[in-house]
Amino acid sequence: MMAKVTIAHSASAINVTHMAATRSPQNRWAKAIMLLRTARSFEQLINDESSRFTKTLSYIRNKMDAASTSTLYPTKEEVRQWEQSFESLLNHKYGCLLFRTFLKGEFSDENVDFWLECEEFKKMKEGKKATIQRAHTIYNEYIAEQSPKEVNLDSDTRTATKAALESGAKPNMFTLAQGRIEQLMAKDSYRRFLKSKMFLDLLNDGTNTTSSEGTLQAEIVSS
To answer: Least CB-packed of 85, 92, 121, 142 within 10 Å?
Structure first.
């Protein structure tokens, strides 16, 4: 009986250790990169139910088109551009996803989510019922006081956005608020992202080479 208890206890300890390793930030970053690199398409990645990142990635199901692996994984030059331009980072599918993953670790992913929502809203047609409904949804989710994902806006911007909503919900109604949040991310979280292990590893990685894939696999094992 004592042997059985000892074995059970050991198995439990191993399981706890495995769970802790799986949850480590380094392990999550490495797995995220591996998932993107090996996925045949962006849509396949989103739909992979076995992935621990399904929920994290699903927010962009309707925001980003399906893409090939070569389009997803950045070139060395593209990664360098991210370092020079925040706009380049946001406008790259892989870069935006990686940045959002970083923000999620800082519990501030609502900022980039709001930015993405604004980008999509600009494409909607003025005067349509769907446009008006979407405007109210975005406002109530990100801008209204005590909203579920309230972003950090000054009172003047919040008031101006509310007035724009009440005057007809035009596609550019969130431009001011979006600009404020983009400035906030650029001055704060973007700078920390550029110093993060996740970004530096990617910057120093031999992009799209067998050796770099081996490095990522080794990182997963060692995490």
So the answer is: 85
